[in-house]
Specification:
single chain; alpha+beta; Jelly Rolls; three-stranded antiparallel beta sheet; 5 helices
Amino acid sequence: MSSPNYCLALQNCRLYFRPAAILPKSLLGEVLLTTIHPVFFTIQSISIKVTPIAILILKKTNMQKRVLHNPKVKDKVTILKTADETGNDHILVEVELAPGGGTAKHYHTSFTETFIPIQGELGVDVGKNTFRLQSSQQAIAKQNEIHRFYNPGKEAIRFHVKISPAENRFLESLCIGYGLADDGLTNNKGIPRRLDHLAVLLEHSDTRFRGLLRLVEPLLLRYARKARKKGVTKELIERYCN
């Protein structure tokens, strides 16, 4: 395998060099190369030697990862289209939602969400309107419009959510939220245990609440600004999105 082609395949990826026997399960990805002979190549002016006792694991960053799973609430999000793939027009994700799952009433100030059921009945409340959507129907929650979605049935459902205009921070917040849950850093409802993590998610996803949650929102947003200055936001993005 030549170095130029090899380096091209490593764009937007992380490299892990470990003896195969001690590789953590969380790092397992696509096995790109195993070797019985030393291999030399260069990445960003750093010469790297892969020895016979090492295995090269390619793990795409979470922003490139297409499927996000939350083990706490047993739902799954599949990224269908990113901002880059739509010319920054929109983002499209598919959600699998367990019975009884859903969100509290909230709104977003910077983007519109369109909910499109694929399998099963999807409940969506927008303003004072309540929808029970079937395939080929849809509901739109515009900017600053209070809404929520939920699964009113007894079987898991699938639906698409279109976010427009495209907002990469939304995908980053998904990666962070699901990453925290996967690392056991949330409660059973997927809410971060640490206040600074919760504050960062609230701000980064551009999510604003109504009801009792609105009372603590100003405090959380102030906490999010402090967390950003302390580098917490950057740390979470680097851990789960880069």
